[in-house]
Design brief:
The complex is a heterodimer of chains A (322) and B (347). Chain A has 322 residues and is of the alpha/beta class. Helices cover 34% and strands 24% of the residues of chain A. Chain A has an eight-stranded mixed sheet, with helices on both faces. A four-stranded antiparallel sheet of chain A has the order 2-1-4-5, covered by helices on one side. In chain A, helix 4 (111-122) runs parallel beside helix 7 and helix 5 (127-140) packs across helix 7. Chain A is globular and about 70 Å long. In chain B, helix 3 (113-124) crosses helix 4 (132-142) and helix 4 (132-142) crosses helix 5 (159-171). Helix content of chain B is 29%, strand content 24%. The longest helix of chain B is centred in the middle third of the chain and has 18 residues, at 189-206. By secondary structure, chain B is of the alpha/beta class. In chain B, the strands form two sheets. Chain B has an eight-stranded mixed sheet, sandwiched between helices. Chain B has a four-stranded antiparallel sheet with strand order 2-1-4-5. Classes of the chains: A alpha/beta (322), B alpha/beta (347). The structure holds adenosine-5'-triphosphate, iron/sulfur cluster and magnesium ion. Iron/sulfur cluster binds next to loops of chain A.
């Protein structure tokens, strides 16, 4: 097998807040092959965004700090890179798309100026040429009348169009890895369908790998090759997408799948998971899921389970399988 | 006793807008709700779905008279609520309550949970006599909180718990109708399921009637008996949930349903990708509001507004081509096959 494009090993990132230390993610490991799409799913606060920002080395310091682990990208450890090297990698090899494009676009520049700027970072182009390139990129991401739209300011565009602009900018450098953090969460479902289709088609054209973060299991099912399920800062399950939906193993994954109403199925009652996500200041001892787990045993309350492999490429962090 | 608990007819709400042009200061109107009619039977749940800005929430607020309609009728339990004076309106408010989307913004942070839940009791009195404190405890119990929560403040609660507090408050005065405006949209999936189950239990035990407003088509399908689909201020389709999800007839409903990601990686879906985006309600398209994006539009569609017509028993649609067979061809799994008609934005 080819070497993976990205390999994350035992990553731990903490935030030093006034109220104490938040271990936002701990012992996070996964790998991503070339051209592959990995979905990261989990509830609010489970550490999805911190994982993505850590890979980009964009964790604000202070209060945040990557404590330990390795992020091997194309054979090199990103944690050993200087900031200027990281900036170059972010401009050329790894690109990121966020949930709310408004916060990542500059409100006082036209979208054309911003795209041109992004292009000029890694291509020697004059102003006119960069503008032409911006127009053709707007066209390629499906923005109608790009000649006119290129002079729009972000606030003159709808959420869907702004996300298209973000995609155009992210892909302008032909990145090998695209990290998308809830790229469609703020959008309506018909616009979401357009954006996902666009993103995945462009990704295929470029042969890029994608790390797609979402809380929507439907989006995961339709786009990912491999899935990691996060809960309270830890990876609970890691499996191929078909395997995960066909044979979910971790009680949390099973509960999540039971919690969502499905358009194709009728259920009188949703399964639901009792209780709530623990506070990061008050992590339960043992398995972090045990207070909400209907299968919890004595050992679950006292000792943290390790990651065990239950099938080829299917790993679970649960005592039931240890 | 009227069969329908709520009857809405030709409801219209136009909000004035000030658009400052370069040379002129024009005022226009946002046609937020533009002629909506439906009814809700006692004890049923009517789902109202549509994308952001289509007028769902405004419709909910008009029904409760939190805002005044521009025109149209709302009849609750056989009484036209438009002409009601202050006193009658207050009595009406006891019968209709609302649960809001944002469990963070909708609760007063300076009031204890007991005060929040008890407030409607101060206004309307405790139903069937009885003590106020006892009623508050009862309500907290019903929504799965405990009596000791009464002395705490909203910020001490999680999103799902706050939504329970909002529900307890809505239940305080024994309403008949609850308008649920995106009650679970802000919640994580596992908590969402808890709140949905709670709403269903309460309906079964208390005989409540719901108007359930949401943009999540899977959630609406799960909880509703009938479903209405809204687009740009108007209803485009209304049917029993079985009919609507199995054989959607309006091209917009078909596209909307086809766009929902299904949590099953082995299921290949035919997706109808709509072109463009929802037009502005300030200047909605002529004729059928959906015609600029509709894969089936014909000449008449841009000229005439299609009537909301009952094409099968209980199945209403607003489409000039509603009677054509092509709209009803179904796949074995029950989803419309529309591949032939697929339009792609990438083309
Ligand atoms: N700047 C920060 N300061 C302090 N704590 C932080 C900061 N950023 C994140 N955290 C904490 O890290 C943990 C993981 O957060 P993260 O944003 O990764 O969650 P998430 O899975 O992306 O959630 P969501 O679905 O809400 O986006 C949380 O406990 C969060 O409160
Ligand atoms: S380790 Fe124990 S508590 Fe944790 S998920 Fe497995 S069975 Fe449940
Ligand atoms: Mg996040």
């Amino acid at each position: 097998m080819d070497k993976p494009l990205l390999e994350v090993r035992n990553l731990k990132t903490c935030f030093y807040t006034e109220d104490g230390v938040v271990p936002a993610i701990e012992d996070v490991s996964f790998s991503l092959g070339k051209g592959e799409t990995i979905g990261i799913v989990g509830e609010s606060g489970s550490g999805k965004s911190v994982t993505a920002l850590s890979v980009m080395r964009l964790i604000p310091y202070p209060p945040g700090k990557i404590e330990c682990g390795e992020i091997i990208f194309k054979g090199e450890n990103l944690l050993a890179k200087r900031m200027d090297e990281m900036r170059r990698i972010r401009g050329n090899d790894i690109a990121m798309i966020f949930q709310e494009p408004m916060t990542s676009l500059n409100p006082v520049l036209t979208v054309g100026q911003q795209i041109a700027e992004a292009i000029q970072l890694h291509q020697q182009l004059g102003r006119e040429d960069a503008r032409d390139k911006a127009v053709s990129m707007l066209k390629s991401v499906g923005i109608p009348s790009p000649q006119r739209r290129v002079d729009d300011y972000p606030h003159q565009m709808s959420g869907g169009m702004r996300q298209r602009v973000m995609i155009a900018m992210a892909l302008s450098c032909n990145p090998e890895l695209l990290i998308a953090d809830e790229p469609t969460t703020a959008l309506d479902v018909t616009v979401q369908a357009q954006i996902l289709e666009l993103m995945m088609a462009l990704k295929d054209d470029l042969g890029a790998s994608v790390m797609l973060i979402t809380h929507d299991l439907g989006v995961i099912a339709e786009t990912a090759d491999r899935v990691i399920v996060m809960y309270a800062g830890k990876v609970m399950e890691n499996a191929g997408v078909k395997e995960l939906f066909r044979r979910p193993a971790h009680p949390y994954t099973v509960g999540l799948l039971g919690s969502i109403p499905n358009l194709d199925e009728d259920r009188a009652r949703l399964q639901s998971i009792d209780g709530i996500v623990p506070s990061p200041f008050d992590m339960p001892k043992g398995c972090r899921f045990h207070p909400r787990c209907s299968l919890a045993m004595d050992i679950c309350r006292n000792e943290e389970p390790g990651f065990v492999s239950i099938a080829d490429g299917h790993d679970v962090r649960c005592w039931k399988y240890a | 006793m009227a069969e329908a608990l709520l009857e809405v007819k030709d409801l219209v709400k136009h909000f004035p807008t000030k658009s400052k042009g370069m040379f002129s200061k024009r005022t226009g109107v946002v046609k937020a709700v533009d002629g909506v009619s439906f009814s809700i039977k006692r004890g049923e749940t009517l789902g109202l779905v549509g994308e952001s800005g289509c007028g769902k929430s405004t419709t909910g607020r008009l029904i409760l008279r939190l805002i005044e309609p521009t025109s149209g009728e709302v009849a609750f339990d056989g009484t036209d609520v438009r002409g009601l004076g202050k006193r009658d309106l207050r009595a009406l408010r006891r019968e209709m309550q609302i649960v809001f989307q944002d469990p963070y913004a909708s609760l007063n942070p300076r009031m204890t949970v007991g005060q929040i839940v008890g407030e409607p009791l101060d206004v309307h009195g405790v139903p069937n006599g009885g003590g106020k404190q006892q009623r508050i405890q009862e309500l907290l119990d019903v929504v799965g909180l405990s009596a000791y929560h009464a002395g705490r403040y909203p910020h001490e609660f999680s999103g799902g718990q706050r939504q329970r507090i909002g529900i307890a408050r809505a239940l305080a005065v024994n309403p008949k109708l609850i308008v649920c405006d995106e009650p679970v949209s802000a919640l994580d999936v596992s908590i969402q399921a808890q709140v949905i189950n709670l709403l269903q239990d309460l309906q079964a035990n208390l005989g409540l009637t719901y108007l359930f407003i949401a943009h999540d088509l899977s959630v609406v399908k799960h909880i509703s008996d009938r479903v209405a689909v809204m687009y740009l201020g108007g209803l485009v389709e209304l049917a029993s949930k079985e009919a609507l999800y199995r054989s959607p007839m309006h091209p917009y409903t078909q596209a909307l349903l086809s766009a929902v990601p299904v949590p099953d990686p082995e299921r290949k879906k035919h997706r109808i990708l709509l072109e463009g985006e929802i037009p502005s309600p300030i200047n909605p398209p002529s004729g059928c509001r959906f015609h600029p994006r509709c894969p089936h539009a014909q000449e008449i569609c841009s000229a005439e507004d299609p009537a909301f017509t009952e094409v099968e028993t209980g199945h209403f649609i607003a489409c000039h081509r509603s009677r054509e067979r092509a709209f009803r061809c179904l796949s074995p799994k029950g989803r419309t096959v529309a591949k032939r008609l697929t339009t792609s934005t990438l083309a």
